[in-house]
Write a structure and sequence with these properties.
2 copies of one chain form a homodimer.
Chain A (H helix, E strand, L loop, with lengths): L1 H17 L21 H14 L13 E4 L13 H13 L12 H5 L3 H20 L4 H14 L15 H12 L3 E9 H4 L3 H5 L6 E11 L7 E10 L5 H10 L5 E4 L5 H8 L6 E8 L6 E2 L10 H9 L2 E4 H4 L9
Parallel strand pairs in A: 1-2, 1-5, 2-3, 5-6, 6-8
Antiparallel strand pairs in A: 3-4, 6-7
Helix pairs in contact in A: 3-5, 10-11
Chain lengths: 336, 336
């Protein structure tokens, strides 16, 4: 009993000094979603969370089963005028260019160095894969992490002249916090490179590396003669976490079916279908980019983040389609 | 201020009624390791945990970096007379046999049905892979999970006549709890099939599916005409999480280097090397099976769980080698 009394005293002091350390970190109530307008999207989110967390209710889900998966590009941060990881790769080509004088006349590197987007686009996927190969492979995981960390801390987005990590969506940050405060475990499930995202997801989204699922290349364990092992990123693609790859990645990395999933493009369609196919209450959401002024407006015909078939299915099945322009009071944290 | 006062009242009541809800779940002190004798193994574990959790100390590690990885077979549960997943596969062959009358005369199935271990061993890896193929592939992930769940709830170990999940090591269960109470995140990193282990790791070890890394086969997303998507396990091996595959699996699934790793065989050597190669305080441990009476005794010459090169390296580098016979008061929870 003496130990309990001590515990009480410590807790009372703690609570008086710093507030309740259990509940203070993240807001559990819907007012947490302060950048969401009171519209159908916010209502569908709040209603769903209330249903699955109501102890004894018909839709109650145990905390350990409250798995929420989020696409990354276009869902948690912007993806225009090109996926940010491609901007990283192009900057890295420029950084490496002094060691490769032949790149000045050799495609696709010439196009990158000349900032000739038209020529680059004409080189298509082959050109793109060559750029990924020289910027993402043939180095250790540690060196790759360092190159991403350096870039993400300094590179600036061409339109907003801000760090790329400033271009995260304030309403989605609030949604992640709201879900975690309601004992959801939040995951990123993205077509982007897993080792690229993991450099900053914990700091930016509160999502630790082990809760990030993404595309990856083959990695080899090497133990050089001096005895310090390294992991070497090789030039072979191992797993593409996009489209039908998303439920496969969820199965492989998480091993449970999400009850909540949010995406923004056709690459998220199978993740939403897989989420929807479970039993019990489910939430499926799509961000619809409708706001050319504060962000961008694009959908069925966009090369980046095309939203076409998944949109039709969402409408048909009553999934939540969030209209960026009308559902969000604010897009980026730095906007008024 | 009124809200804080309310919070205080609620906390005081909670603490009085049920004890401190933050600290009560798992014991943080070394007395938690009650099945460990006071010897070098227990001392090295407790010393390490105290060093990395001492706030402001030279070896302090932030909770989010406290990643602990455990091999499964032979480290958390037994692996004799054969890996338990092989016992599952053989039982499943017997279960499926009525639908395959040709198996009565066709190897390797005949050997399984005749319980002819010698013939089976003679068929080697080819025979083994055929058994895995018919028992682990060509079915949906949901059906496979069900077949494992049914088996693990009923199948009994030949020597102890107990459920296989009874053959977990009591001292390791205590170690997992002790680490989690000290804000470690515990992972399994095993050569076993990831979808096999995930069926029971949360219940048995308190390790949720998303913290289990293992070997896997290729899985395909299929959306049949009736519109209910499934994941189909195909006959192709995707990833072997053993030996040098363990640091690769750790990098792929966890994305952080462990500071604590425990194994029992040469298949764990690279995981321990990878753990050791990080900066700051590190713990590397091996279970040495020395107790033929309470469990089994095997090491350098064993076909299952061979401990040879990893043992030499552990001795050379001063890693912890746990002697089952002298370090553990009790092996299995059911033993006195």
């Amino acid at each position: 009993m003496r130990r309990r009394t001590m515990t009480v005293v410590v807790w009372v002091l703690l609570v008086l000094i710093v507030g309740n350390p259990l509940g203070a970190a993240e807001p559990t109530k819907s007012e947490a979603l302060s950048s969401w307008n009171d519209g159908p999207s916010k209502k569908s989110i709040v209603d769903f969370v209330e249903r699955v967390t109501r102890d004894g209710g018909p839709d109650y889900v145990k905390p350990e089963e409250r798995i929420a998966t989020f696409d990354h590009d276009g869902t948690l941060w912007a993806e225009q005028p090109m996926y940010f990881q491609i901007a990283f790769a192009m900057d890295r080509v420029r950084e490496l260019a002094p060691k490769h004088p032949d790149w000045k006349t050799k495609q696709p590197f010439k196009a990158v160095l000349d900032r000739d987007i038209k020529a680059l686009a004409a080189l298509g996927e082959t050109g793109f894969l060559k750029i990924i190969a020289v910027t993402h492979t043939g180095i250790t995981t540690a060196d790759f992490t360092k190159s991403v960390a350096d870039w993400i801390a300094t590179a600036r987005h061409p339109r907003f002249d801000r760090l790329y990590t400033d271009l995260v969506y304030q309403p989605m940050l609030e949604l992640l916090s709201f879900l975690r405060a309601n004992e959801f475990k939040t995951f990123i499930v993205s077509g982007g490179g897993v080792e690229f995202m993991r450099v900053f997801t914990e700091r930016v989204y509160g999502i630790p590396p082990e809760q990030v699922v993404g595309s990856s290349g083959v990695v080899q364990f090497k133990l050089p003669p001096d005895g310090k092992p390294v992991l070497l990123k090789e030039g072979k693609i191992d797993f593409v976490d996009d489209g039908p790859g998303k439920p496969v990645g969820i199965n492989r990395f998480i091993g449970r079916r999400p009850i909540f999933a949010f995406g923004n493009s056709d690459g998220d369609q199978q993740m939403l279908e897989w989420t929807a196919a479970g039993s019990g209450a489910r939430f499926m959401g799509l961000v619809h980019h409708t706001d050319a002024e504060r962000e961008w407006a694009y959908d069925r015909k966009s090369y980046v983040g095309r939203l076409d078939k998944a949109w039709d299915e969402a409408v048909r099945r009553g999934w939540t389609v969030t209209n960026m322009k009308t559902d969000w009071k604010k897009v980026f944290p730095f906007q008024p």
